């Protein structure tokens, strides 16, 4: 029974071969990544050396130029003029770079404005074509179906008045124990002010519900 539970030799050999292939592939990948990292480090090292070499060559050239000008008659004046010319050239270079950046930014803004204008023209054309085809405007339909957009009707006002008077007749001080008349007036004023503050939001919510239909 114990010998029957063991895997056959062919299966064990295949598993060993798969493990060996996986290990070799992993080692090859690690060696490849190591070569890539060494190449990157070498390139960075060479770039840094070139940058330092250019900087040193520039400094040596400036030192030689300064030494040559100081050896001439009125060398200090020549040196000052040379410095001024270098500063002017550097300032012009910075200004040209800034102008190019600003021009690119203006170009991006102009492209954005042109895209917005094109989108607005497409939307206007769609609306005009819809009107010509007789397609109803959903916003206008929602505004017509919105009860908040309709003027107050006399029947609605009378019904509301009857409801208010009915509540007034059914009121009894025992419904609000521990509260004086002034407390009730302040609470009513606060509720009315809250109704006024939220009326615009309520109208907007009703309009959205009608529009979604």
Ordered list of secondary-structure elements with their pairings:
Blueprint: H1 2-5, H2 9-71, H3 75-133, H4 138-145, H5 154-170, H6 181-212
Helix pairs in contact: 2-3, 4-6
Brief descriptors of the model:
213 residues, 6 helices, single chain, 0% strand
Description:
The chain has 6 helices and no strands. It is mainly α and 213 residues long.
Roughly what is the average pLDDT, rounded to an integer? 79
Number of helices: 6
The helical percent reads: over 70%
Which ranges are low-confidence, i.e. pLDDT below 50, for 5 or more consecutive residues?
Answer: none
Largest sheet: none
C-alpha termini separation: 74 Å
SSE order, one letter for each helix or strand: HHHHHH
Sheet-strand content, in percent, reads under 5%
Total beta strands:
0
User: Radius of gyration, Cα only, in angstroms?
Assistant: 43 Å
Summarize the structure.
The protein is mainly α. 86% of the residues lie in helices and 0% in strands.
């Amino acid at each position: 029974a114990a010998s029957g539970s063991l895997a056959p030799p062919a299966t064990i050999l295949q598993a060993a071969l798969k493990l060996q292939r996986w290990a070799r592939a992993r080692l090859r990948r690690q060696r490849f990544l190591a070569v890539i990292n060494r190449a990157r480090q070498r390139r960075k090292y060479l770039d840094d050396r070139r940058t330092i070499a250019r900087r040193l060559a520039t400094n040596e050239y400036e030192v030689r130029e300064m030494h040559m000008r100081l050896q001439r008659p009125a060398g200090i004046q020549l040196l000052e003029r040379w410095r001024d010319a270098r500063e002017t050239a550097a300032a012009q270079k910075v200004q040209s770079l800034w102008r190019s950046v600003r021009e690119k930014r203006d170009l991006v803004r102009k492209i954005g404005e042109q895209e917005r204008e094109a989108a607005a023209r497409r939307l206007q054309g769609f609306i005009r074509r819809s009107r010509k085809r007789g397609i109803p405007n959903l916003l206008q339909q929602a505004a017509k179906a919105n009860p908040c957009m309709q003027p107050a009707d006399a029947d609605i006002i009378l019904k509301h008045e009857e409801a208010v008077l009915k509540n007034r007749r059914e009121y009894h001080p025992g419904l609000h124990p521990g509260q004086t008349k002034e407390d009730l007036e302040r609470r009513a004023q606060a509720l009315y002010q809250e109704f006024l503050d939220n009326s615009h939001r309520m109208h907007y919510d009703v309009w959205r519900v009608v529009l979604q239909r």
